[in-house]
Amino acid sequence: MSTAPHPIALPVTAVTCLEDRAHIERTAVLDLTAGIQRLRLGPVSALAVDRTLHAELTSGHPATVLDLRIVRAWSPRGPVPPTDEDSALRHRVHGLEEERPALEQHRDRLRVRLDLLGRLATDLLREIGEGAGYGETELPRWASELDRVDGERDTCAEQLRSVEAQLTTLRAELSAAQQAMDLSEEEPAELTGHIELTVEASAAGPVGLRLTHLTPCALWRPAYRAVLDGDSLTLETDAMVWQRTGEDWSDVRLTLSTARASLATDPPRLGEDRLTLKDRSAAERRSVDVELREEEIGELGPAPVLGLPGVDDGGEAQVLRSSAPVSVPGDGFAHRVPLSAGTAPASSEYVSAPELSPLVTQVVRFDNVTGHALLAGPVDLVRGSGFSGRGTLDFTAPGAPVELAFGSCDDYRVVRETEETRDTAGLTQRTVVTRTVRLHVSRFSAPGELGERSVVLRERIPVSEVSAVEIRLHKSACSPAPDVVDAEGIARWDVTLPPGGRRTLTLVYELSASAKVTGL
Length: 520
Prior knowledge:
It is a single chain. The chain has about 525 residues and is an alpha+beta fold. It has four domains: about 1-75 and about 190-215; about 90-185, Helix Hairpins (Orthogonal Bundle), CATH 1.10.287; about 220-260 and about 315-410, no CATH class; about 410-520, no CATH class. The chain is built from three helices and 28 strands. Strands 2, 3, 5, 8, 11, 13 and 14 form a seven-stranded mixed beta sheet that branches. A six-stranded mixed beta sheet has the order 20-17-16-23-26-25, with no helix packed on it. Strands 15-10-9-18-19 form a five-stranded mixed beta sheet, with no helix packed on it. β25 (about 485) and β26 (about 490-495) form a beta hairpin. α1 packs antiparallel against α2. The termini are far apart.
């Protein structure tokens, strides 16, 4: 068996990015000799999942794969001086680290000298005390010696304070430089991986190799950009890709999938659901308890996901492909990859729901002409004045209608007023609640602006689910009557306003309940 001394390059050629991982494909051409041989390929990401490694020979060469494994090696970077290729910040850190030991040694020498001078002063004072006890009087010599020792101690202490101040400044500068280097630069990978491939060939010759595996630390999410230009809207579909797999993806074929390979496929266990009946009490028979509650109008399709933590694909795996090779560095930052773009005719209208917001919003409707499903994600809104905000796009099938809100219009004002009266009939003891809603709409136009503009106003009417409570619209008291009232109780007016115009809309409806109804 022969082993290649140098590793063979095994670049990444195709990537299928999933919701929380990536399927990596690598290709290479091997120059095999006859017999069994072990080849070393790489380097590859050390995060590759071992059990997902799969290799196949793509040509008709008579060769067989006998063994395949990934071997990881730990190679920490030693304290080597920086080279010319390193940044000025790294050179500065290296210079400060070399200057710090010299200052620390100088500080230690000064401390030792100061300690020795202190001992010398102690010995000199002891000698003076002993000489005075024996009757010796050498005042000039003692004074000169004490003055010399005190002067050297003061000089040494001053030098020590200066060195300690320099060390404090150096430590602060070194800490700031290291923090800046940690934020701006990355250390080379210390954990690397190589592929060891054992093959058996009956004849010498070149053979193509295709190797695949899964790698974590990679994900993608959809993003959109909607550009409104008059009666047409251009929707650009992009993918935000993050990856920190330890290697860069350079000029790879990128495929984006919403498949969840790790999702369990076992059906849920069925549990017992017991239903029991009981007789109502006399008090429950005499009264009907009702309450007013808010209900969101639901539609068919995927359930809404707050915050969009994952990719909402409507329950069916979607696959999107980049039209050109792309490069995604392994820096962990978001990189935008264009996928498709489509232009469709669009219709817009100005809509307001005063009960929810006093603003008038421009709503644009168009069809999905991109040729693929639009996954739920954020969308940047651009119109004639430039970037106008950011919205959210729901899951939309190919060819299905899409609705986007392009922000509010400052030249409208809507004021909502409500009144309520409650009355009880004498004979039937029915409770009648009459509600009056007035909507005041104003249009503020710039000087010289001409032409009327239509605004759609929506106001809701409660919908009863029990026969004991009836809701009736007084069309004769409405001014004007709503153009449409749908099954969910949403009343709609199409109001046309000239420049500087004002309109007042009045909606009157009553809730009638029998005497045994409580909670209204």
